[in-house]
Amino acid sequence: MKDQARTRGAGWWITFGAIAFGALFLVIGLIMGGVSLSYVTSAEQARGTVVSLEWSGGGSSGYSGKSRSSSGPTAHPVVEFTTREGWATTFRSSMGSNPPAYDLGERVDVLYRADSPEDAKIDGFVSLWLLPLIFTGIGLLIGGIATTVAVVIRRNRRASA
After folding, report:
1. What are the phi and psi torsion angles at 98 (to 5°)?
2. Is 0.90 topped by the overall pTM?
3. 76 near 95, Cβ under 8 Å?
4. Which of 60, 75, 84, 134 could potentially form a cystine with 100 if both were Cys, beta carbons 3.0 to 4.6 Å apart?
5. Could you give the 3-state DSSP secondary structure of residue 155?
6. SS3 content of the chain, % helix, strand, coil (to 5)
7. DSSP per-residue string spanning 70-115
8. pLDDT at residue 36 is higher than 50
9. What is d(CA 55, CA 135) in angstroms, rounded to the nearest whole number?
10. Which residues pair with 52 in a beta bridge?
11. Which pLDDT does position 72 carry in this prediction?
C-alpha cells in the first residue's frame, strides 16, 4: 500500500512538473510575442539591402553560396538601410540560417525604432515571430498533454474508489 501511495505521489509531481514546465514556456512565448507586437506597432519602415553575410558557429568566414550543409556555421545577414532622417545605418540580424535565407544584394523590408535604428530587424516571419511561436507551441503542447494526463488519472482514481 505504501509503494502504491509513493508511486501516486511521484506521478503527481511529474505531472505537476510537466504542467509547470509547459506553463513557463507558454508565458515566455506570450511575452516574446508581446515584445514583437510592440516592436512592430511602434517601428518605422525602410527598405534595406543585404550587404554581407557574417558566418558564426563554425569558424568559417566569407560567402560561398547556398550549397553549405545544414549543420555547422550559420549566416547572419548584414543589412544597410537609410532612416527617414537620412542616416545610413547597418545592422547584423540576430537570426541566422544555413543555408543563408538571404542573398547578397537582396532587398529586404526593415523595421527600426527612430530612437535606436541600429537595433533594427528584418521585417519577416522568422525574425519577428518564430521564437514566440516555438515557445508558445511547446508550452501549449506539453502543458496540454500533462493536463490531459492529470485529468484522466484523477477520473480513473475517482472511478476506482
Report:
1. -140, 110
2. no
3. yes
4. 75
5. helix
6. 50, 25, 25
7. SSS-EEEEEEEEE-TTS-EEEEE-S--BSS-SS-TT-EEEEEEETT
8. yes
9. 26
10. 78
11. 79
Helix (H, G, I), strand (E, B) or coil at 47: strand
In three-state secondary structure terms, 52 is strand
Whether 132 and 29 have beta carbons less than 8 Å apart is answered as: yes
Distance CA 150, CA 97 (A): 39
- Tell me which residue has cell 508550452: 139
Neighbours of 42 (CB within 10 A): 11
| Distance separating alpha carbons of residues 48 and 153, to the nearest angstrom | 55
d(CA 45, CA 33): 19
| Closest C-alpha among 81, 71, 20 to residue 45 | 81
pLDDT of residue 63: 47
Contacts of residue 79, defined as CB under 8 A and 6 or more positions apart, other chains included, come to 48, 49, 50, 51, 90, 91, 92, 93, 108, 110, 120, 122
